[in-house]
């Protein structure tokens, strides 16, 4: 199995449009998608950055939401998590098309796992089934 690579980071922002524009203007990132809920998804061609809308009633603070690893084999990574005493990776909802699975580290920090990468949106029907034993 190849070495997992961090390829995706998601931030909560009070003004996601302004934050996304900042990264487009200052770092030449490209806007890949604007979600109906106000999320802005950017890429530099290698790394993707999601700027998600933060709402006052949300549980999470402004800032880091999650990051994502591109891996060769999600099932193998999920098995390693289970052997380390953590929950296996869980399938992402079909309305979250950028990553196939999500897991947490021992402190509860969330990370996505994707075999296809974070540059393209995959229709829900093409996403893998949940990792199972």
Describe the structure.
The chain has 133 residues and is α+β, with helices and mostly antiparallel strands. It has one domain (5-56, 63-126): 2,3-Dihydroxybiphenyl 1,2-Dioxygenase, domain 1. It is 17% helix and 32% strand. The chain has two helices and eight strands, in the order βαββββαβββ. It has helices spanning 16-27, 74-83, and strands spanning 5-13, 30-34, 40-43, 48-53, 63-70, 90-91, 101-104, 110-114. The chain starts with a strand and ends in a 19-residue tail after the last strand. Residues 123-133 have low confidence and may be disordered.
Quick structural summary:
The chain is α+β, with helices and mostly antiparallel strands and 133 residues long. 17% of the residues lie in helices and 32% in strands.
Key features of this structure:
alpha+beta, eight-stranded mixed beta sheet, 133 residues, 2 helices, 2,3-Dihydroxybiphenyl 1,2-Dioxygenase, domain 1, globular
* Number of individual domains: 1
Beta-strand residue fraction: 25-35%
In angstroms, what is the radius of gyration?
A: 15 Å
Largest sheet: 8 strands, mixed
Q: Going across the biggest sheet, name each strand in turn.
A: 2-3-4-1-5-8-7-6
Query: What's the multimeric state?
Result: single chain
Q: What is the CATH architecture annotation? A: Roll
User: What's the N-to-C terminus distance?
Assistant: 19 Å
Question: What is the topology?
Answer:
Blueprint lengths: L4 E9 L2 H12 L2 E5 L5 E4 L4 E6 L9 E8 L3 H10 L6 E2 L9 E4 L5 E5 L19
């Amino acid at each position: 199995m190849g070495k997992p690579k961090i390829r995706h980071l998601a931030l909560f922002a009070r003004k996601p449009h302004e934050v996304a524009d900042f990264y487009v203007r200052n770092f030449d990132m490209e806007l890949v998608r604007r979600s109906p809920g106000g999320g802005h998804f950017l890429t530099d061609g290698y790394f993707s950055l999601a700027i998600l809308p933060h709402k006052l009633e949300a549980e999470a603070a402004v800032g880091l939401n999650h990051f994502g690893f591109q891996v060769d084999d999600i099932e193998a990574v999920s098995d390693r998590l289970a052997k380390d005493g953590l929950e296996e990776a869980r399938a992402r909802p079909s309305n979250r098309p950028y990553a196939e699975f999500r897991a947490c580290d021992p402190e509860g920090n969330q990370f996505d796992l994707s075999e296809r990468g974070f540059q393209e949106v995959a229709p829900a029907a093409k996403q893998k089934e949940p990792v199972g034993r």
